[in-house]
Amino acid sequence: MARQHPEEPTLVELSIEEVKAMGKQGLAHPSTRPVLIGGAVGAAVGALLDAVSWPVGLFGGALIALLMRVKR
Q1: Domain-by-domain residue ranges, the chain?
Q2: If you ran DSSP here, which 8-state letter would residue 26 be given?
Q3: Does pTM surpass 0.85?
Q4: Cα(35)–Cα(41) distance, rounded to whole angstroms?
Q5: Which of 24, 38, 70, 72 is deepest in the core (most CB within 10 A)?
Q6: Cα distance between the two ends of the chain
Q7: pLDDT one-digit tens code per residue, 17-40
């Protein structure tokens, strides 16, 4: 399926750019703290639930927080 506006970057491209910027700027980047907090919340939930482990929760929480930041 062709994209309607091929000149606009995709969500994956935007996410990669955001992660690169977070890596370069560290905690000075506005997205770093929300993504770290999302990861911490996900790790806590993963530690409490028997279905997933804390690393899976950490990755999932950080991913959700990152996608929420990029979509805005």
Answers
A1: 27-71
A2: G
A3: no
A4: 10
A5: 38
A6: 24
A7: 999 999 999 999 999 999 999 999
